[in-house]
Specification:
The complex is a heterodimer. By secondary structure, chain A is of the alpha/beta class. Chain A contains twelve helices and ten strands. In chain A, helix 2 crosses helix 8 and helix 4 runs parallel beside helix 6. Classes of the chains: A alpha/beta, B alpha/beta. The interface between A and B is large, with 45 and 46 residues.
Chain lengths: 310, 398
Amino acid sequence: MANLKELTRREDRLAGGHRLCAGCGASIAVRQVLLGAGEDPVVVGCATGCLEVSTTIYPYSSWKTPFIHNAFENSSATISGVEAAFNGLKRAGKIDPDKKVRFVAFGGDGGTYDIGLQALSGAMERGHDMVYVCYDNGAYMNTGIQRSSATPKGAWATTAEVGAAQQGKRQRRKDLTQIIAAHGVPYAAQASVSHWKDLTDKAEKAFNTPGAAFLNVFAPCPRGWRIPSSATVEIAKAAVQTGFWPLYEVEDGVFRQTVKVHNRKPVEEFLKPQGRFKHLFAPGNEALLAEVQADVDRAWDALLGRCSTE
Amino acid sequence: MPEHKTLAATGNTVVAEAMRQCKPDVMAAYPITPQTTIVEEYAAMVAKGRVHTEYVTVESEHSAMSACIGASAAGARVMTATSSQGLALMWEELHIAAGMRLPIVMANANRALSAPINIHCDHSDIMGARDAGWVTYFAETAQEAYDNTIMACRVAEHPDVMLPVMTTLDGFITTHSIDRVSVMDDESVSGFVGQYVPKTALLDLENPVMHGAFSGLGGPYFEFKKQQRIAMENARKVVKDVAEEYAKLSGRPFDVVETWGMEDAETAIVVMGSTAGNTRHVARDLRAKGERMGLVKIRVWRPFPHVELAAALKGLKAVAVLDRAESFGAEGGPLFLETRSALYDAAERIPVVDYIYGLGGSDVKLELIERAYKDLSDIAAGGAAPAGPVYLGAREEA
């Protein structure tokens, strides 16, 4: 795995000057992931969403790579088509059979957990030599902070409002990383923009794994989470330290925790700084807050149970 | 000159055969009745190593077209096939394929849309894709389905066009019936279609390109659409040029509007797809009895040949349109609307009657077509035109 010195020499493949918000987790995730591709050429696909609209405003492109955007739910299917073309054109003798190209598809949690789940599942099952990267900011941020199946329980969203009859999102979030791991893909991992080395190492592993690989990257959204744009990395770190977002990988079915958390902090430390959870700390919501903590504890124990102890 | 071989084969078999001869680099397809035998036969060719095609067995038609778009943007020659609900599920992607100017070729086995669920022939599926921006052929026979597939490849990839092309054949009637088909040798076909040399391929790594850029916020979306209109207009000539060249090879002439018995006809039926055969049969019988009936068959639905159609119908006393699809709430079916619009500039007003027929594979009996011709005779003799659209052959209780 490349060290920091080596990484600094690699080209940044997402140029500055894009129009994502200050403090956006998505652009950090993309830059770290693409560093993991090393010197190899990369073809990027991207689902409709913040990342896409902010980096591809015609006639400009922030991508120093060939790039394709198709629609919202199908960046995985689109990139699987690009990878298929690579194979077909090699067989046709139009591309050097030794040529190495990396294929990566990006999507937000809406485009991945929800509307894109079927296409993602299909691409992972077919085993295209590609990496799918979800930048998970826990809601439909591009359309204005609507709840997705990645939105945490209790979070405020514009379609999971807070009022006399409802205290934000009622349901638990979906555990997508484990869903993809259950496809039996050779590599699936959960990472965070707060742990750059862990993230880049995982990306490198994902790119170097023949077949389909999946990365779920925690990518805070200051606008949707109601945090200052300077707090992105801190909040992401709190998610890891509270066990809300454990960092682990699944290689050929073997679970391994990549960043150990020895004194797991109460989930409150992740929730409290965020405006979207403000109501959880209002009188009367003690039980809901306890429920959120209980959910985190249960998922944490289940994950540790799955992880190899080495 | 090519070697010609006569086969007894279904429409689907010869579509798969034509696709093999066009040597696509990628096929991404999902099974749906009655398209299935195309993708099955192609899969068998893949398994036998007869093709170099990368065959992507996607999990839905939406992903089929998504993968085709990715593959085509990457620089590959791409083909696929679908039908009915599958085409409907692709709807979003059909527009994107055309908007991104990707020369994908797709066969559609024309089939009714749900509800109620029905697997048989009509043109509802294809009419739902009418405005997606695809050049669209209709086939009467398996032979036409074979020829159209090969020509489609050339039209799609023509630099003046660069649009996706759909070649349609009627579900079960043409897809599954065994027909007499003349096919050409592989070399002649691959020589005719040539190599696809993409100009903006994702896999041209030395010349990186961006496909699918954002064009809102006052961007040139409107101008891109105008470019699509120009490309579709260009397709009029390209379709004819390619057909002329193909006819030299195949010996089968092609016209976007084909006529039968129109030299001295007083009335005519306008039709698309397999029902042209039934109609020709009836017209022939009626002619033998001294009736001056003709047939006008539309072979290319988009771009719609309004000039050629108006010329074919010029001076007639009455025209019937057979529509195998509905456009609920409109004055008639889609073909009727096009036909009447094509006749708007005619010097003399020609009565046009719309007949909705054969929905969900409802039998197209000869007597139904006779009835339409009889109505035309009555109108030509000064009778009133029936109020349309007439549901031809629908059971009375409905």
